[in-house]
Amino acid sequence: MVFFGSQSSDISYKDQRSFEERKKECDRILQKYPDRIPIIVERSSNRNDIPQIDKKKYLVPGEITWANLIAVIRKRIRITPEKGLYVFVNGQIVPHSQLVCQIYQENKNECGFLFVTYSLENTFGST
């Protein structure tokens, strides 16, 4: 897994960069790493009570499962095991067994990035 770009901030990636900038960046990345999937991971906009991920931009092999990507996200935001992590693409939860390359082909943005959001839910009665 390759990480690229700057650290995370509260401003969404789409708000930080124009469509043309995102498209140009994604095209450059895909030319350099044609076997990788460019992903932007961001906290759900309405959830300031959960940690920001330390890096927003990821390049992952397309052959990994969605569950593998969720494990990476969980590790990067450093949440405790009793917290439930929900990861969305276009507002939908994706089956954990699906390959990232399939999700990318079905859901990538016009700029070329796959945009992923996450949210936490307390489970097991914890607060």
Give a quick set of tags describing it.
Ubiquitin-like (UB roll); alpha+beta; 6-stranded mixed sheet; globular; single chain; 127 residues
Description of the structure:
By secondary structure, this protein is of the alpha+beta class. It has one domain: Ubiquitin-like (UB roll) (Roll). 30% of the residues lie in helices and 26% in strands. It contains four helices and six strands, in the order βααββαββαβ. The protein has helices spanning 13-16, 19-32, 66-77, 100-107; strands at residues 2-3, 36-43, 57-61, 83-89, 92-93, 114-122. It has a six-stranded mixed β-sheet. A hairpin with a 2-residue loop joins strand 4 (83-89) and strand 5. It is globular, with a radius of gyration of 14 Å. The model is unreliable at 122-127 (pLDDT under 50). One of its GO terms (biological process) is autophagy. Its main location: membrane. A lipid is attached at residue 125 (Phosphatidylserine amidated glycine). InterPro entries: Atg8-like, Ubiquitin-like_domsf. It comes from Blyttiomyces helicus.
Give a summary of the structure in a few sentences:
By secondary structure, this protein is an alpha+beta fold.
